[in-house]
Amino acid sequence: MSTSVTQVAAYAAPAPKAPLERTTVPRRPVGEHDVLIEIKYAGICHSDLHQVAEDWGQALFPMVPGHEIAGVVTAVGSGVTKYVLGDRVGVGCFVDSCRTCENCLAGDEQFCASGMTATYPSAPDGSATYGGYSTHIVVDENYTLRIPEGIALDEAAPLLCAGITLYSPLRRWNAGPGKKVAVVGMGGLGHIGVKIAHALGAEVTVLSQSLRKQEDGLRLGADHFHATSDPETFTKLAGSFDLIVNTVSATIDLDAYLGLLRTNGTLANVGAPGEPTPVGMFSLIVGNKTLAGSMIGGIAETQEMLDFCAAHGIGSEIETIAVDQINEAYERLAAGDVRYRFVIDTATFATR
Q1: 151 shares its domain with 26
Q2: Model confidence at 5, in pLDDT bands (50, 70, 90)?
Q3: Do residues 107 and 166 both lie within one domain?
Q4: How far apart are CA 339 and CA 66, in angstroms?
Q5: What is the pLDDT of residue 4?
Q6: What is the CATH number of the domain that holds 114?
Q7: Torsion of CA 258, 263, 269, 270, to 10 degrees
Q8: Are 317 and 220 in contact (CB under 8 A)?
Q9: Burial of 137 (0-12, 13-18, 19+ CB in 10 A)
Q10: DSSP, residue by residue, 135-152
Q11: What is residue 232's predicted lDDT score, i.e. its pLDDT?
Q12: What is the pTM of this model?
């Protein structure tokens, strides 16, 4: 593929809530510090559905979703020092930031004071960014992640969003030996949280609506599995956990879950429900409890996560699909019909 600006095959939503369709989008020339990545796999994140539906405000269309990208370097700029041809690399939720603000200098580029440049759909210089549902992408080497050999590329792709989304709060609140951690929700985020918390050495409990996924939860590293639809769960587990990570994007009874925390415990939320969620102040005051939020991590922490996952044999549980199955996958994901992450095989651009 040429290192000059070119058109690449992609799947895009032409308008809000429209089905995705095959098209082409431009990729910029490979600059001095850029790498050209041949995308091998792209994960489908639930946030892709929200973006296409414009659930989070006005967005840019046509939109090529995808911020869970795994591939191989096929060209490098003259100033690139971190990667060579053939390196296995990934791209997560953002591809640039100001690099000079307090947050960027602290390694929290995701909270850039000027606003990070999202992998899609941003327009920092007037031209839109396009995500990973495509064959190639050009990214600055400093916003590119190295995927270690210990993880298969298809299983690594969802780690670039889902993996760091769970790794960051688990590390921040010191999940590890002697700590009791609960993961709320056993889906695309939650199942990775179970694996990581187990690998960190914590005692792991899954809190799911039903016991339908109990066998999977225990297989992936959970020590205990409880149904939140059973009121006895909240009585039996009261005051049990040092940390609860809530992965669901629906409104839950925060007071009930705060009641499951030990003194000085934390309920960290990574799911983003569309409606406000009330909480009683006494649920926090009694027991010095903390209600917190967590997003993704910066570049350094994301690389740390990938290295950790490779060292512990952690990848996402995936269902691989062809590019012409994307709309069907969106419907199934909206219905909760996936165990546990859809990943697009971009080689099928050439065969479909």
Answers
A1: yes
A2: low
A3: no
A4: 19
A5: 67
A6: 3.90.180.10
A7: -140
A8: yes
A9: buried
A10: SEEEEEGGG-EE--TTS-
A11: 97
A12: 0.95
**Count of CB atoms within 10 A of residue 127's CB?**
10
* Burial (CB count within 10 angstroms: exposed 0-12, middle 13-18, buried 19+), residue 218: middle
Examine the domain organization and report whether 157 and 103 are in the same domain: yes
Q: Provide the residue type at 186 as one letter.
A: M
CATH code, domain carrying 232 = 3.40.50.720
Is 78 part of any domain?
yes
Helix or strand (DSSP H, E) at 22: strand 21-27
| Cα separation values, 276 from 22, 75, 137, 254, 272, Å | 37, 46, 37, 11, 10
Q: How many domains does the chain have?
A: 2
8 A C-beta contact, residue 325 and residue 346? no
DSSP state of 109: G
- The backbone region for 31, taken as left when phi is positive above 0, alpha when psi lies in -120 to 50, beta otherwise, is beta
Whole-number percent of the chain with pLDDT over 70: 99
The structure tokens 């967005």 sit at 59
Q: Is 103 exposed, middle or buried (0-12, 13-18, 19+ CB in 10 A)?
A: middle
